[in-house]
Amino acid sequence: MNSETIIINKQTWDEEAERFFGRNPLPEYGPLAPTEEDIMLFDHIQGKKVLDIGCGSGHSLLYMHNKGADELWGLDFSKTQIHTAEKVLSNCPSVQLFEAPMEANPGLPENYFDIAYSIYAIGWTTNLQQTIMNIHSYLKPGGAFIFSWEHPLYNRVKQVGTELLFQHSYHEEGFYDHEAWKRPAIMQQIKLSTYINTLIDNGFIIEKVIEEVRMSEADVEKHQNRWYSDKKAKSIPTTLIIKCRKSN
Ligand SMILES: C[S@@+](CC[C@H](N)C(=O)[O-])C[C@H]1O[C@@H](n2cnc3c(N)ncnc32)[C@H](O)[C@@H]1O
């Protein structure tokens, strides 16, 4: 775990959290990405114990509650996000929230969860290997892990006028300070193959990899901002979604 980076990012999230209140939670997977209603990765939520990694304002956990999940557990390192999630989930029974980095186990039970998921949070990890190993340990054998994050090609390419230009090499991995953020926001550039191999090396079986873009008129209008644009998304996926399962 890279403690210095975690401290910097935590401060940024504590200050910026409000801007992300309820932004793209489940059933959304991310900007201009297909939704859970389109791709149905979660199959049975009713009666399940679910864990949200990087739960943010708690809206994805609220979705899980509305779909009948039995126990809602969430982890997020931002104090502001955890306070907000407590309010958002105040009418839900059986909620357990941990203010902690995803790189370490703050006391979560092992071999316990039917489903772990993470919506646009995993690329903030300072240690993918450790994070995936932790998530694997929390799941029951046969439990599912589903996550979305910005597609690793998306920030490699810049739109200049009508042209798309490669700004960075796809081969380069490691930490970078995201240019769209006004405060320091240190994320990890991780190739698709690294995600897949880290999951496999930690005992996950990959069930689905999704790179599709969804561009209804409403999506385009909702997600149009400095960073995500329909023009770029016509050629490059915005979001990577992976579903995998802990082997039995
Ligand atoms: C885009 S938000 C997630 C939104 C949320 N998953 C949802 O569905 O609404 C990313 C979250 O990751 C959290 N985060 C970033 N780095 C983290 C880390 N190393 N450990 C735990 N949480 C982290 C941030 O505090 C933020 O709440």
UniProtKB/TrEMBL annotation:
GO biological process terms held by the UniProt record: methylation
GO molecular function: S-adenosylmethionine-dependent methyltransferase activity
Coiled-coil regions, chain positions: none
Segment forming the signal sequence: none
Pfam families: Methyltransf_11 (PF08241)
Keywords from the UniProt entry: Methyltransferase, Transferase
Domain of life: Bacteria
Name the UniProt record assigns to this protein: Methyltransferase domain-containing protein
Organism placement in taxonomy: Bacteria, Bacillati, Bacillota, Bacilli, Bacillales
